[in-house]
Amino acid sequence: MEKREHWGNSLGFILAASGSAVGLGNIWKFPYITGENGGAAFIIIYLICILIIGLPVLIAEILLGRKAQKGPVSALRSLAQKNKTLWVVIGSVFFLTGFIILSYYNVIAGWSIGYVVEALQGNLGTFSNAAEASQFNATLISNPSWVILWQFAFIALGAFIVYFGVRKGIERIAKFLMPIFFIILILLVIWGLSLDGSEKGLSFLFKPDWSTVRFGTVLMALGHAFFTLSVGMGVILTYGSYLNKKDNIFFSGIMIALLDTFIALLAGLAIFTAVFAMGFDPAGGPGLVFNVLPAVFSQMPGGSIFASLFFLLLSIAALTSTISILEMLVSTLMDEFKMNRHTVVILLSISIFILGIPSALSFGELEGVRIFGLSLFDSMDYLSANILMPLGGLFIALFVGWNLKREEVMGELFSGFRDGSGNRKLANSWYFLLKYIAPILIILVFLSSIGIIQ
Ligand code: PHE
Question: What is the reported pTM?
């Protein structure tokens, strides 16, 4: 068996895990659900959810991975005190969730690099309104060779990075891409703020209107907290399993959640200042980024350049997230079946590509195929993000809160502090949130996402 790799340093871990967290969820999904759910009030609820549920589960996942030094299935098996088989089944569901998410996530990720190329050719700077931009988008995404080509290219890129392993592949690319990502984002924010009329965007983002808040809004925010932090399916657990014993789990977890949240807010700033300044509708739905933004870019000087930068930003965000999911799958198979990394990467990428084809075609050829009224793409998203991830998060919280002993958990949390100091009070509040509050709230999200309560 290959020896387990470790991150070169804790910055490498923080950047790789933030790269996983920051993804399409921050730049594509967060702005449009904020737009649809009334802006600032939604953002405040989302921030609370991150703090009291997302962050505690995130820290629990890092802790599990570091303690077990194994991928999800093997980690749960080796740490479970009883019901080992049940936990192995749950670990296998994590694997399945990752597999499903990766298959459709790569489709949208593929569109984003496809859009970089379109923008560089000047094709995204020519629209006089949002309808024209959506027409352009519809033509592209219903073209089977365009979608499959970019989906394939994206998977190949991710596979290429993961092939080189944790330190030489993932950590190296995260240290290279995350700063570039940040610079592009800051440029876009400055540009957005400099537009006439940007203040309307600012008040949409920062002045809460509580009259729009419903119970469903709260649950939407809670569900997104999971997706955006990548928690509930063993991805962060896997990254945690490459941590050294001296690294500080608590600090890393807080940094990752802070960076992810900060970046979602910056993406919201860049997008809504532009959308409002140009008089477009903030509630543009899932098509906000692909349908509305190109029209916004078309109205302004230098629009093509900003369009290329924006879609490059989206592609980078998606790439560092896809590699984290692929790595979770890879490490699971390596740990379980003592397989070799290179073989596993190739086998998995081919199967993910094949499984993703129906999702890729569901905006064209297969548009009419519906499962419970949802397109193939939407049903994959619904099953994984709304059902499997909240359940996964619940099981992580239950595992760390109820299956492990409190001393074991605290021992692992503070193993990096040689003198045994470390903030006990903070750790106690974390433990309380994880053991009681998070499970109850997650059950609520889950019930709402399957439509039992509304
Ligand atoms: N957190 C990523 C995003 O916001 C998505 C993701 C989900 C990545 C689950 C890994 C695991 O886009």
Answer: 0.92
